Amino acid sequence: MRFKFLDFISRLIPYTKERFLVIDLGKGFIKILVMRDSQIENFFIEKNENGSFKLAIEWLKKEKLQDVDVYLVVKGEEILLRYIPFPKIEKEKIKEVFNYEIARFIPFKKEEIYFDVCILEENYSKEEFFLLLAVAKKDFINSLIEKFKKEDINIVRIIPNNVALINLYLNFFLKEERNIALVDIGVSSTLLSLVKGKTPCLSREIKVSLFDLFERISKKENIEKDKIIDAEEKFKEIIKDFGWELSQEIKNSFDYFEINWGQKIEKIFLTGGGAKFENLFEVLKNSLDLEIEIMNALKKIKYYPSQLLNFKEILATSIGASI
Q: Which H or E element spans position 88?
């Protein structure tokens, strides 16, 4: 397998005209996009419940896609991104040097991980590059690869969710060099990345998630998760409290950015299942006192099945991984 984290964010590899699959194993939904030449030819989206992976594999086989190369989107505690000022050396030797230096930057043992590194800024300072280091636990990655290998499905690239989200912004939404936040509110966690101009500089996974919101609502009323969005006015106060808690976590990262970079975040791009909640949008906007734009990941896709519009809020990382 060609294990490569950072092809996308470095934007050195041209968009392929060959057909490939993006598989995103989100906690809420399993998503499969069939991609070719900036078009979505077909898709599979199913709630991630017992038996969903089997359904996804059956769909791939029914569509005769099991021989198509796969880009796999991943997230979790086993994935780590670090943004690092690093002394300038010959570019081709950076990864070799990190083989010896990596223990300084991560909480894992060197033999337990895969890693990749790329240059974000060549002239961060006179003596330093600014680098992105991506790390994943071998056990986690190997178990995923083995799971697909048993079904004769070939994973050729691994893309961390936050890298995919950053890539979507840099390619589809970057109009002027502003300091922005990318916020993806998902079922298991909230992804947050900060971009200074056009350079990513912080990524983290916040544990406050839609699962917490659903749990709080279910304590008040026995209601199916799918129906909460249509009844959100009924749960306005719960959503408000949840939004305030999430906004404080986000604000902590904004404060860190201001202290370390001497500048403020100017705008938020919001995506994920949480972007569907109008009351949550308003709470975040008022609590953080910033302009918020909901990302439509489909905006620059040449063609896609019209049914995908129903899922546009949860496609950001999948489409970001495809660019």
A: none
